[in-house]
Amino acid sequence: MDQDNLALSTEFVRDAALPAVTPRRVIFGAESAEETPPPDFSAPDLAVTVGSQIASFGDGLDASLKESVSNGFLFAQQVADKQVQDAANASTEDWYNSYVDVLSRIGWNRENKSHSLKKISGVSTDVHKEIIPIVTAALGPVAATATVVRVLEGLQNINEASPWITLFSKSSQRATANQFQMSHTYVEDGVPRISLIAFELSAERKITQVLFFKLSTDSASLSHFETKMSVDKSIFDSVAPIIADRLKERAKDFILNIPLL
């Protein structure tokens, strides 16, 4: 283990500023007043909501690592939120860069990055249909077994009458756009790896009334960032308990089960 890197990661986790917010139980855009049971991280097919993210996990990951990875996602979101709050005119890409930078500071090695902006005009049903192909392409060969893809397919089916898939509510709303992330953690060559896709969805709806008829047009832009990371367990396993301690009750409220649909 690189003791210098471990010391830097430990210091960062202990000192990183988190936003002063009241925890909310948020799942699919609905705030629940009922107590939500903690996720069963030992489940073989698992997807959880972590703040503004759907995180799924493949085979070969033990329950403690799944929980620690979920906490890592939440910690990175919270630190990025605070950094963006404190910066003037911060963009979605600024938030995403801060988010991935935090992950790299807690023992996750960044392997690549890509950015794509796709303009979609017309009826709003066109937009959410684009999310599944993007996630599937980003995950590559592991997409066939990724729980997050099945969750999205189920959401698409139940939202046919209401074309916008509202994945998250307040947790996804930053600046003027809606941001949300999808991830899949899996084991490859004995190393835990993470495929991460972050989306920015901006939409505009215009309604024109002609006598008794209302005509509406929708336009939207869907931007996404992709990165792949590997987990350096020698560092991450050491800082994970400190992350969990800092999150405490916040983690319980922000990490929820997603049932398979």
Please give a quick description of this structure.
Strand 6 (173-174) and strand 7 form a beta hairpin. The protein is α+β, with helices and mostly antiparallel strands.
Rounded average pLDDT: 78
The dominant shape is globular
**Fraction of residues in H or I helices:** 25-40%
Q: Beta fraction of the residues? A: 25-35%
What is the succession of H and E elements? Answer: HEEEEHHEHHEEEEHHE
Global Rg: 19 Å
Q: How many strand units?
A: 10
Distance between the termini: 41 Å
What do you see in this structure?
With 261 residues, this protein is an alpha+beta fold. It is 38% helix and 32% strand. A hairpin with a 2-residue loop joins strand 3 and strand 4. Helix 2 crosses helix 3, helix 2 packs across helix 6 and helix 4 packs antiparallel against helix 5. The longest helix is centred in the N-terminal third of the chain and has 24 residues. It is globular and about 65 Å long.
List keywords for this structure.
alpha+beta, 10 strands, two-stranded antiparallel sheet, 261 residues, globular, eight-stranded mixed β-sheet
What is the strand and helix layout of this fold?
Layout: H1 3-15, E1 26-27, E2 30-31, E3 46-50, E4 53-57, H2 63-86, H3 92-105, E5 108-121, H4 125-139, H5 147-158, E6 173-174, E7 177-188, E8 191-210, E9 213-231, H6 233-247, H7 249-254, E10 255-257
Parallel strand pairs: 4-7
Antiparallel strand pairs: 1-2, 3-4, 3-10, 5-9, 6-7, 7-8, 8-9
